[in-house]
Amino acid sequence: MKKNTLYRLYSGAFIGLCLVPTVLMPFVKGDESKEKRALAELPKLKTAEGGLNINYLSDLGDYFSEHFAFRQQLVTADGRIKTALTATSPNTDVIDGTDGWLYYAQTVDDYLNINTLNERQISGICHDLRLVSDYCGQNGKTFIFTSVPNKNSLYPEHMPLNYVPADADGNYELISAGLAGESFYLDMKAALADTGSSIPLYHATDTHWNNLGAYAGHCAIMGALGRDVCPAENWTLEPNGRLGDLAAMIYPSEDAKDTQVNSDCEFTYQYQGRFKSFDDITIDTVCEGGEGTLLMYRDSFGEAILPYMAEMFASAEFSRITPYRFDEAALEMGDTIIVELVERNLPRLAETAPIMPAPEVSEETAFFTPSVYGGEVSAYIGRNGSYTLITGALPESFFSGDDASVYLTINGTTYEAFRASEYSDCGNGFSVYIPADTELDSIEIFTQCSDGRAVSVEVPADKLIRKEQ
Asked: 388: domain range?
């Protein structure tokens, strides 16, 4: 009898404990801002079109799993137990390193030097950046491209020992080699490594560089431009006041903060227009003591570097817009144009071409006599503002040798194409932007390879596939 009573009490206590997160869900809510992502919303029985939501139960399950009471406390407890006992992270997006360091799991391929871009993709990225640089130069603009290294590329010593890099070059090194000697390319990894700072340039529990790292990046960029840097001295390491983005994924209920490095720099720049946060798509600034104008395409690493750059230019626009625009309207925004892209996102340069009028090839350019491809090639056409985009991918037989250029002849005018394309995952893509009012009577696509091979194909205008807008 006593045994049955104990079983009942145990079962009741267990069921009651399991019900607590559900019963208290309306009354106990976590701080969603710490999650660094949008949580599932409470689903509705009917869709926006008025029909029955057939995914209601699964959506309701997603909502409960992300909103039950004490969720962040339980996730934090799970994270602390697993990192302490097994030295592993409970979140697949976070790697638990040594000495309290955390790393972003999406940088693992770069760290291990695996799943890298192929040679054709690398040469295509370098080719496209040269086209942008040439176009900016022809229009009197200074162009700089730089890639901020992943944290584990600069500080590998805190990575777990079971992550062993392959004896090969990663995407960063391959692109750096392809752009070696180009005046528009800034090797940010080398610049940061050369600082010799005893204070780390990156946060221990965050993906990004700290203020000192951003300032070092600013100094490298201004050096590449041949300009003075924003004066900043007396750097001190202080409590950060915010939870690192990686720590927030596995310890969301904790108040433990990372550290920040601050200086005595006094900023005088001001924001123009509506400024909500550093996550704004575009941020405009003016500075009375600055010189020149700047258009800077940036990602989340641009948040910390923005104040230093804004202080040095009379006006600046910091943009997160992609694809990058280098059309006439964009070039009017700055006499200096900078593209900053974190290392882990370098493959995106092979997928999306920048918006820029395709360079016309002069009649004096000598082309090899191409052989005619007997099959069909799919090409896609879409509208983007004042441009028509023609893009696609070519068969493998169009390419040979170490490198190849792609050209499109449209109504007697020949254009050099960007090599990036969303329709190619192996570097065989092409993309051109031409004026939207161009009549498409005939299109010839051809390659000219470094070994002398040339292949062409004609695509009738009525065979172009319209892209969805």
From this structure: 371-466
Task: Give the integer Cα–Cα distance in Å for 379 and 460.
Answer: 10
Same domain, 403 and 449: yes
- Tokens of residue 11, six digits: 């079962």
Q: What is the pLDDT along the chain (469 residues), one digit of tens a residue?
A: 555 676 666 566 656 555 555 555 554 455 555 555 566 666 666 666 667 766 656 665 565 555 544 555 555 555 455 555 555 666 788 999 999 899 999 999 999 999 999 999 999 999 999 999 999 999 999 999 999 999 999 999 999 999 999 999 999 999 999 999 999 999 999 999 999 899 999 999 999 999 999 999 999 999 999 999 999 999 998 887 777 888 887 776 566 678 899 999 999 999 999 899 999 999 999 999 999 999 999 999 999 999 999 999 999 999 999 999 999 999 999 999 999 999 999 999 999 999 999 999 987 787 888 999 989 899 999 998 899 999 999 999 999 987 899 999 998 899 999 999 999 999 999 999 999 988 888 899 999 998 889 999 999 988 889 886 5
* Number of CB atoms found within 10 A of residue 309's CB: 27
Do 385 and 342 belong together in one domain? no
Q: Is the backbone peptide bond immediately before 323 cis, with ω within 30 degrees of 0?
A: yes
Q: What is the pTM of this model?
A: 0.84
**384, 442: one domain:** yes
Q: How many structural domains are present in the chain?
A: 3
Neighbours of 134 (CB within 10 A): 14
Same domain, 278 and 327: yes
